[in-house]
Amino acid sequence: MARLEWETAKIVRLRRMLMAWYEHSHRDLPWRESRDPYAIWVSEVMLQQTRVAVVEERFKEFLELFPTVDALARAPEQEVLAAWSGLGYYRRPRMLHRAAQFVVANCAGVLPQSSAELRLLPGIGAYTAAAIASIAFGECVAVVDGNVERVLYRVAGWETGVRAGSAALKRKVGELAGELMDAERPGDFNQALMELGATVCLPRNPLCLVCPLSTDCYTRGEHRRPPRPPMLSREIAHALALRTKYERETGRGASKARARAVREVLLEQRPASATVMPTMWELPQLREAAVPDRELCMAVRHAIMQVNYYVRIRTVTEEKVAALTLAGGARRWVPLREAGAMALTGLARKVLTRARLLPTEPADALAAMRTTEQEADADAG
Fold first, then answer.
1. In the predicted structure, residue 375 carries a pLDDT above the cut 50
2. Which of 142, 162, 181 lies closest to 19 in space, CA to CA?
3. What is the pLDDT of residue 253?
4. Do the bridges between strand 232-249 and strand 307-316 make them parallel or antiparallel, or are there none, so unpaired?
5. Is 44 a catalytic residue?
6. What CA–CA distance (Å, rounded) separates 336 from 358?
7. Which of 49, 51, 130, 297 could make an SS bond with 313 (beta carbons 3.0 to 4.6 A apart)?
8. What are the C-alpha distances in Å from 324 to residues 257, 280, 301, 319?
9. Which of 93, 83, 35 is nearest to 57 (CA)?
10. Residue in 33, 44, 64, 159 annotated catalytic
11. Please, what are the domains in the chain?
12. 23 CB contacts (<8 Å, ≥6 apart)?
C-alpha cells in the first residue's frame, strides 16, 4: 500500500510546500473564479483532451450561450454542437447535453454533490466526478489525470516502462494520491497537483529547479516511459462548392422589387450512425485526393486523434459537384451568413474561416467562434 512508502512527516511537508506554491504561482483561469458546480463541470469536460489556452477562450462563450444546466438541457443538440465546434472530441458535448437533460428531469436541475452520485450521470467518469465533487463541494476525493500521474511517478520514483497505464499501476497511483490529499482543502490540493504537472513538472524538460516538491522527489527529471505511438498520415481532399443566389428584397418603403445576392456553400451532414462526429456538417469529400494545381484552393493539416490528415481543398462548381465527390449524407446549400452557427466539423470551420467565408460580426456569438492554427494540434474533429 502507498501508506507504507510515505511517512507522515513527509506527507505533511509535501502538502505544505505544494499549497504554498499554488497560492503564489497558480494561473488565473476563468473557471477558478467560480464555485458554481455547473461552470466547474463545463470547464472539466472542455479541458479533457484540449489545451488550456483554447478552453480559456471558449469557456466564457459557452456559458454565455448556456448559462445554466436548465439552459443547456433545453437547447437543441445541434446548437450545443455548433457552440463546441473546433474543440473536437464531440462525444463530450453530446454527453454533457444528455447529462444536463438527466439532471433537469431527475434532480430538479441541481447537480449531485458526491463523486459517487455524479458518476451515475451520463458521460461523467471517475476523474470528472472527483474534480467536480472536490472543487465545488469540498469532498475529500483525489483527482488523477495525466498531469497528476506524471508528478506522482516522478516524486515516488516509479518508472512507467512498457506497463504504463496498467490497472495495477493506476491503482497504485490512485492510492498514493489519496494518501497525499489535504482533507481541509481538497479542491485546491487537487488543482495544485494538476497545476504543477501542467506548468512545472512537464513531460519534457521539467523545471525541477523551481519545483516545490524537488526536495522529496526521487526522480528530479524525466522518468522512463514507453514511446508514444507514431502518428499516422492520410491524404484526403474536400470540395469547396460556392454559388450565388438572388433573393427578392421586400420591406417597407421599397417601391421597386430588388434582387439581393446571397452566397451559399454546399455542406454535407455526417450520418447519425457515423462513429466519428455523427450529424456534424462538413464539406463534401472528393473522389480523388490528388488535386490539379489550377483547382487547388488551399492545403491544410488537420489532426484527429492519432491521424494527421493532409487535406487539399478544391474549388468545385455546382455543375461538377456530383461527378467529383463521393456520395455521403444529406447535402444542403447553406447561406454563408448562417453557416457559422451550424454544427460544423473542426476541419470545415477551419477551411471556411481561412477562406474568409464566415461572418465575424461580434454581435453573432456563434459566428464569432474561431479556429486557430495552434488549435489544430489539439482538435479532434
1. no
2. 181
3. 55
4. parallel
5. yes
6. 6
7. 297
8. 38, 21, 22, 10
9. 83
10. 44
11. 2-216 (1.10.340.30), 232-377 (3.90.79.10)
12. none
